[in-house]
Amino acid sequence: MEKTPNNIDEQLLDYLDNKLSPAAKSSVENLLTTRDDLQKRLQILKIISHNFHGQKREEPSKNFTFSVMNRLDESPVKTGLSTSNGIFLLIGVILTMGIGAWLLSAGVFDQSSTTIDLNKIPLTQPYIRFTLPSISVDGKLVVNIIVFLNLALALIVLDRVILKPLFQRRIQPGQ
Amino acid sequence: MKEDPDLVSIDRILSGERSLYAELVDRYKRYVFTISFRIIQNRPEAEEAAQDAFIKAYQHLGNFNRQSKFTTWLYRIAFNTAISYKRKNRYQFEDIQHAQLEILQEAEGNLEKLDRKKFLEKALQKLTEVDRTALTLFYWEEFSLEEMADILNVPANTLKVRIHRARVRVADELERILKKEAVTL
Fold first, then answer.
1. What pLDDT shows up at residue B55?
2. In this structure, which long-range contacts are made by residues A79-85, counting pairs with CB atoms below 8 Å and at least 24 apart in sequence?
3. Which residues in chain A have their CB less than 8 angstroms from residue B114's CB?
4. Is residue A49 a contact partner of residue A16, using CB atoms and an 8 Å limit?
5. pLDDT of residue A33 exceeding 50
6. Does B25 touch chain A (CB under 8 A)?
7. Predicted ipTM of the assembly
8. Nearest C-alpha neighbor of A58 from the set B151, B82, B108, B8
9. Which residues from chain A sit within 8 angstroms of residue B136, using beta carbons?
């Protein structure tokens, strides 16, 4: 079957929706008498329209209204973090950050560095024949990164749990 | 000029007649549930989402600014709630099984009508949830293009094109399915 052009689809849809001028309508009708493929296409579009128009609204359960009325005072379903959980998380993150910063300033991690020799890892020995480099890990740097990540997390939690709801309430005072 | 009965009810609910809200729920529950079901395509979940939409609407009734129709505002809440549910729970595989079960349960009815419905449902699966809901609202013939755009949170011009493309896409898909069925028979 030859490919139906898009503008023909548009005309057929407008024809079905009774949106065509009398001239355009008779032009489409003329086309339909000569083109079997367009007749079939119109049939398909009619099936869709007919089914949608005949479609009943879906019926919820019988106790739907009763359930809604019983749940009116429920707090709305929250997809994110609840305020109390958010505050606990924020306190935890700040505490971890504080302890980390305090330990760093006390110099606890100044001497803590180690070297990981990849050649000594048993898993690599049978498969890799060349010598692998050794990686030196600085404990102070690792703790610095953890403190920095905690700071970023604390800012995100602060925004989601405290600042955003606060400004939303200011915009919608009735809420 | 006669006042909109929804606005009258809303005023009374806001002044303390809470039980009147049941009337609004009764009036629009089928519409809200249909929107949820079109998006989620799972009856129990759609029912929960529809109930949540009504609860959210009640809790924010004071913020309804009356510039649009109450139904436009309510259906927008229903649409957003259902979309959130859909994103939270992916029901792709469950949907297909559920749809098949429903078709089997309806198999006692008119076979031709059932086949058409089944094929159309299959074709609709190819659309996005926004396009499926847009088609549903379009065929309800109760909203202007601007109101539908407001409910679905898309620009009106874009929506017009989307509805047109969705109808063509469903037609293409239905044609393909029917052709395939004809070959297998």
1. 94
2. A79/B84, A79/B88, A80/A160, A81/A157, A81/A160, A81/A161, A83/A161, A83/A165
3. none
4. yes
5. yes
6. yes
7. 0.76
8. B82
9. 52
